Amino acid sequence: MGSDSVSTLPSDTKREPDPQQPPPNSWRIIEFFGRKPREVAIFLLDVIGLISIALAASKHLVNRKRRRIFLNLFIRQLYNTGVRALFINGMIAIFIGALLMSRLFNYIPQQVISTQYSYLFVVIVFRELGPLISGIILISRSATAVTSEIGFLRMTREFQVLHGLGINPVFMFLLPVFFAFPISLFLMFIYFDFVCLLSAYVFIWFSDPSIGFTAFLGGILEQITLNEVAINAVKALLGGVMIGIISIHFGAKATNSFDDVSDAISNSTTTQLMSFFLINVVLSILAYTQ
Amino acid sequence: MSIVIKNLHIEYPDLLLFDDVSFSVSDDEIVAIKTQVLDGGTSLLKGIAGFLQGVSGQSWIDNTDLLASTASEEHFKIGYVYENHGLLSIYNVQQNICLPLQFHTDMPSTEIAQEAISICDLLHIDHSLLASYPHHLNDVQTRMINLARALIVKPRVLLIDELEGGMSDEVLQDTMRRLKERQRDFPMAVIITTASEIVMGLADRVLKISDRNLIEDLV
Description:
The complex is a heterodimer of chains A (290) and B (219). With 290 residues, chain A is an all-alpha fold. Chain A has one domain. The longest helix of chain A has 43 residues. Chain A is globular. By secondary structure, chain B is an alpha/beta fold. Chain B has a single domain, classed as Rossmann fold, CATH 3.40.50.300. In chain B, a hairpin with a 2-residue loop joins strand 9 and strand 10. The longest helix of chain B has 17 residues. At the A-B interface, helix 2 and helix 5 of A face helix 2 and helix 3 of B.
């Protein structure tokens, strides 16, 4: 007190720091470690809530007319997530096949090349790279589009319009994403693996034309077990559902400004990448650790 | 009576808009609510329709209180015409108009399409707009498509939020006249918020917002 300075700040901010109180930064750190787990818990509960809402909304699919509305939106979503990603997915698969998998061929001793190379191809591409890269493509292309679309619909109050028409927005927007994302992701896995295999073979054949495609393909297919197909299907199901639900969750948080939409996209992408990597790593460890 | 409003109370966290509003509208009546900027006309309509949180009271259509019901079939009985936007951007005009009937009824698609065409003819909506998307439309066209979608379900109550924006006097008079024709064929209570003398002149009754309530405008 007794300061001559002119200030418009509220009087409580002029208090001198009490030497008995901890410095403010400590409180902020403590607050951070208290707030973050709470935010994560709320987020997980929201995700579980959205999944249960989506499953509940599935009851509308028994109605023929509503099923037709859903199918149009579902096919639109499949087209946008899967078909329109064919080019980028294929190009990356070609690069991986050409630069990585064909080079790998040269480092394996000739005596064990067919079994070792096939095994390494399955471990590297089929088990890990294929799912991861397909998931990254889904997140960067389609999930961001869904997040921004939902944010835009919130801003223009189209959800309110649907409520006014007696139509649940969950049926129109969440349900198609809920079903289309896992299916698209699994098909993208298969497509990526196949293109990568073809690309690797082409470059291997240039260095060694004696390698037949049938033998090359057969060797790789022999290494793929039902367990690996099942694990990839689970990765697609869990990963696809999580990516879709997270898109809807963050998109729906947008309110009245485009800043909200860009924040939503940024937060959504970060969360999706972390979740998808976590799902892949955990499933791979559980399935393939001997 | 087609709609009976009792003790309607609309309050936002920092603002009391309407307190203890009660009135009724019969299904052969057009009631105009005279509004000015930011006096709560839109909120009143949305409150009657049950679209808002923080609303108490009763809004009876037939034997159903809209404010106490969450069933989508009840909202199907209401036609709502938004002042701005109001259309779904993922669908074209025809799909927007047909959507409520597609979702809520078992009518064949061809029959629904025919209904959409006849509503467009009634409202003088050019058929070439049917393939357009909402972002291709101007304000007047958007509002007319809103009106077409509201009328196609043959609502028990039609709520219109400021139909006149951007319309010429001739178009507005013609639209109101066609609305009255539609009301004769398919009875419905019509509540319309407006600042237009033309609409007020064509209405059966005019109310105005005063002191958080509605009173008869005898001017």
